[in-house]
């Protein structure tokens, strides 16, 4: 089935007004200008599936999901009570603000219900219960579970008895796939030709990733999705204090791509060449948070290329100056704003409820 856009679409993203927004807020309509239809047969790949890694998304699947998110953000799909019969468990055994609240907001806006675990100390894990047994309990309490955990192997343990879809909300230093969906949804609204056409060499993007994909989950998942758009990315530069910021697993994955990937330890040397800068400085290593790459800072005085945009999954510290907030380099607030809609789209696809909702 193909869902078509309405003949006339209101370009105002209610209820926000552009003059009240900080930074760039590209119109979701941008994603629908060339291909204003959604191929729901592609989205069926996600039906009742667990979302564990960014690697499960091909380019076509991801782009159809982004178009669905754009329809949702433009309020051109009737979504009230679509998931009235579904319950989502948000099991966050590690602190979270944006991921947990955006998933809960997405579910509630779709008419579903939510159960929350805000910290491990409030669960029976504090009494020594295994994740295997907790996974079995989720089968009785919910229809989908979003999990964040400090350990990489937590998802594997939870999945042992789990029979409902599991969404990875961040597992240790491994991956954060739905953060990457939010990141690239913002980028495709900003420049939809990345997905819709092949750019001339002079217009291909140079991406800068400030961080260490080998042990920073948001950075790793962002890099994985970046490789989907190889024909329109000229080069990726990893800016890191580490000599080997990728690690063996990520390096093997990147070796299969045609995009040249460079490593630099000097941000100022490359910043003026970059069209997109993705940065993060917080990593969970061992049993605690570390602030990696604290020497790499961006401000309005950093010599950013004209038209360049910055992404940051937040929370930030002093690596990203607030003096960039009210500039057109700021795409990070839009990145956070769009997270609800891409997660709404994901939940609709997982529960196979897209076709029942016409434009």
Architecture overview:
- By secondary structure, the chain is of the alpha/beta class.
- It has 3 domains: 2-79 and 338-350, no CATH class; 87-171, 3-Layer(aba) Sandwich (Rossmann fold); 177-336, 3-Layer(aba) Sandwich (Rossmann fold).
- The protein is built from 12 helices and 13 strands.
- Strand 8 (233-239), helix 9 (247-255) and strand 9 form a beta-alpha-beta unit.
- The longest helix is centred in the N-terminal third of the chain and has 15 residues, at 59-73.
- The radius of gyration is 20 Å and the shape is globular.
- It holds the Pfam family OTCace_N.
- One of its GO terms (molecular function) is carboxyl- or carbamoyltransferase activity.
What is the structure about, briefly put?
By secondary structure, this protein is of the alpha/beta class.
